[in-house]
Write a structure and sequence with these properties.
This protein is an alpha+beta fold and about 90 residues long. Helix content is about 45%, strand content about 30%.
Length: about 90
């Protein structure tokens, strides 16, 4: 009887530590990834975005797996994977 109580009392801090880790690290990271995925899927023509490489551009065409960006007024366009869009610029 005392052996099982000893086991429970030794596992309780480990369970508490995992719960704290989950609520402070894992859950917020999952929420952030979900918001980023929703933002990427909602991109449309005319939206201004920043890429992971630091390029700032305007969405010209949004395909299923890539996005065509206009980088400047001279009409320079690039095709970039949706995975490399860091954030949308709200003006």
């Amino acid at each position: 009887m005392q052996g099982s109580a000893n086991l429970i009392s030794s596992l309780l801090p480990l369970v508490a530590l995992f719960a704290i880790f989950y609520f402070l690290v894992i859950r917020p990271q999952q929420n952030q990834a979900k918001k980023h995925k929703e933002m990427i899927s909602s991109l449309k023509k005319g939206d201004k975005v920043i890429t992971n490489g630091g390029l700032i551009g305007e969405v010209v065409k949004a395909d299923e797996d890539s996005i065509k960006l206009k980088l400047n007024d001279e009409g320079v366009t690039v095709k970039i994977s949706r995975d490399f869009i860091a954030k949308k610029i709200d003006e």
